[in-house]
Amino acid sequence: VKKASAAWVLSPFTASALVTPTGQTHPSGEQRETWGKKIDFLLSVIGFAVDLANVWRFPYLCYKNGGGAFLVPYLLFMIIAGMPLFYMELALGQYNREGAAGVWKICPIFKGVGFTVILISLYVGFYYNVIIAWALFYLFSSFSGELPWVNCNNTWNSANCSDLNATLLNDSHKATPALEYFERGVLHLQDSGGIDDLGLPRWQLTSCLAVVIVVLYFSLWKGVKTSGKVVWITATMPYVVLTVLLLRGVTLPGAIDGIKAYLSVDFLRLCDAQVWIEAATQICFSLGVGFGVLIAFSSYNKFSNNCYRDAIITSSINSLTSFFSGFVIFSFLGYMSQKHNVALDKVATDGPGLVFIIYPEAIATLPGSSVWAVIFFIMLLTLGIDSAVKHRRTQACPIAYFKSYIFVVLGVDRFSDDIQEMIGQRPGLYWRLCWKFVSPCFLLFMVVVSFATFNPPKYGSYYFPMWANMVGWCLSISSMIMVPLYAIYKFCSLPGSFCAVCLPENF
């Protein structure tokens, strides 16, 4: 699942993990166990939405696409698509009291969508647990008198390694100690000729991965009883650490210049279609609609819970966290830019390179660098354990669109009646119009853009071979193909007409 510590939501809870509410039964008379405390649910949803992408993706996109001007398309897409879809999934799960697969009792022929979500979650988990293991490896390495990525005197360094300076940042033939530590000290890329030459597992990284899996297991093995406690740490710790890093960052020379560059407004960039595409993409990256986790979380809410208020609060906190993290990141990038007398765009980047190369470089120049490194990588661990990576544009967006399309077919008016039954009021005209017209069009746009702008993956100057790209496409198709396959299975196995396999199970 997208949220590593929320893996349990796709399987049944243990009886001891939840409490049975009084007077909170479904209209059908079915009793349903619920969250012990409302705050557990809110922190779980916030932790699910807030992840590494808030730290390593949004600030860079904002800087690259016109600074403050980028907030115009970002907030627009947030209002017309992000929040409505977020609200829709919370309400859908809360009313039907089912998880990612079970909720499709509303239209059994499309239950394959639920199975698709679960399979995508499995694939994402394979990748994201490795990212958490890297962060853990860096954390262990930070407990030293001198950080291992400070100089070029280590066994893994090459002849191209040179201490960080202005010349180095402009010389593509040189490498920083931090870059070589990540690529040669941690990943040992120098021992591999490519993806077809993986070599033996490194025991250090394998051990870190094993620790991550054990930690996740003991965080989840009793359902909400344990994960409800874990989320109080994993969902709140990033905010504490970000605040501490910001207080340190703004005191550094050049920090204000970095923040000004982050916030500088260039409205002419809004004439570039790519800016709008990246804003729309970030909304999909950010909120995680289409993964089924929101449905599963809300399915254990009390029936009369105000899911509308929850959707507004949690989606807003997610966006504010992205914006806040930009101040932290660019205060340190501004410091590096001034310290080494280079342009900011020479040190500004996104993705793993920001948190495993650029940021460690900045931390290494500070007094008491080991302490700051420990603080930073603890934040990465809590973000990682609490969430999963959001590189899902070619999978989650089509699934979210498919859900939205089916939702419109089944009837927005009927769904509005369900919401009124839960919280006492029907959704306003704005929400109904978004669900019926705006959000499906937005998601269809994202699906088309995702495939139209696809570029074969690469790492630096290394392009992955054709067979590796084909494996990637097969993995993507293997999940989405479950939707039509399950529909065909239903048609062939159940007697009756077309309507019989499309109507809700209890119709």
TrEMBL record:
Cysteine disulfide partners in this protein: C152-C161
GO MF assignments: metal ion binding; symporter activity
GO cellular component labels: plasma membrane
Keyword line: Disulfide bond, Membrane, Metal-binding, Sodium, Symport, Transmembrane, Transmembrane helix, Transport
Top-level taxon of origin: Eukaryota
Residues annotated as binding Na(+) 1: G47, V50, N54, S286, N318, L383, D386, S387
Gene Ontology BP annotations: amino acid transport; sodium ion transmembrane transport
This protein's record includes keyword Translocase: no
Subcellular location field: Membrane
Positions of Na(+) 2 binding: A49
Pfam families: SNF (PF00209)
Membrane-spanning residues: 41-59, 71-92, 113-140, 203-220, 232-256, 276-297, 317-336, 356-383, 433-454, 466-488
Membrane protein topology class: Multi-pass membrane protein
Annotated family: Belongs to the sodium:neurotransmitter symporter (SNF) (TC 2.A.22) family.
Protein name per Swiss-Prot or TrEMBL: Transporter
Organism: Pygocentrus nattereri
